[in-house]
Design goal:
This protein is mostly beta strands and 209 residues long. 11% of the residues lie in helices and 31% in strands. An eight-stranded mixed beta barrel has the order 4-5-6-12-11-8-7-13. A two-stranded antiparallel sheet has the order 2-3. Strands 9-10 form a two-stranded antiparallel ribbon. A hairpin with a 6-residue loop joins β9 and β10.
Length: 209
């Protein structure tokens, strides 16, 4: 889950939006093929997201868009500051639902949407939806997982509210905190969407600590 408030159930959110724009991981919807580019003599083999969790400060973690190169070192296409978890006592507990950061591992990217409407107090705007993940205890499933920011569905920012944190406006570095989702600044997720459109939409998210 992404913002520090209760979000609408995913099924209801999908009903509101008419569905996300899907990647190859969700064949029932329109696929977004990865572009094929070259790097030297090695042909590119698609893109993926790479989230490196910062043990010292989860709000200063990093999300990268990577290009896979067969037989060579993968290329960093773009890198952004990102956060996951609420930053509290359980912020680094991957099994603490709505508190801890994402579990390590590889996730399928299910879909992306530039104008997602998550309903009242839900995630909105530019989002990348990734699959649910069972954490290290083998019992707790982390669900409703997105890469997202804080904005209205059309991408604009809410008005400032002095003394109050608005979930649809990027107010400060505290907004890197989340209920577990990966969060970026609005300008950074916009750049990520541009880069993914140029190089091909990622089909995987890899999370490491």
């Amino acid at each position: 889950m992404g913002i520090r408030r209760r979000i609408a159930p995913l099924a209801a959110a999908l009903t509101l939006t008419g569905g996300l724009v899907a990647t190859q991981a969700a064949p029932a919807l329109a696929a977004q093929p990865a572009s094929q580019r070259t790097a030297g003599k090695a042909a590119a083999d698609g893109t993926y997201l790479y989230f490196d969790k910062n043990q010292s400060d989860p709000g200063k973690s990093a999300l990268s868009l990577m290009q896979s190169i067969p037989g060579a070192r993968d290329t960093v296409l773009a890198k952004y500051r990102a956060g996951s978890g609420d930053g509290g006592r359980n912020g680094k507990d991957e099994c603490a639902s709505s508190q801890g950061w994402l579990p390590n591992g590889t996730y399928q990217v299910l879909a992306h949407d530039a104008h997602y409407n998550g309903g009242d107090e839900g995630v909105n705007g530019k989002v990348i939806h990734v699959q649910d993940k069972v954490c290290e205890n083998g019992r707790t499933t982390r669900a409703e997982l997105f890469v997202h920011s804080e904005m209205w569905p059309e991408g604009s920012q809410a008005s400032a509210e002095p003394g109050k944190d608005n979930p649809y406006r990027w107010d400060s570095a505290d907004d890197y905190r989340s209920l577990g989702c990966i969060k970026l600044k609005p300008t950074d997720i916009g750049n990520l969407f541009d880069k993914a459109g140029e190089y091909g939409w990622p089909t995987k998210l890899k999370v490491v600590a």
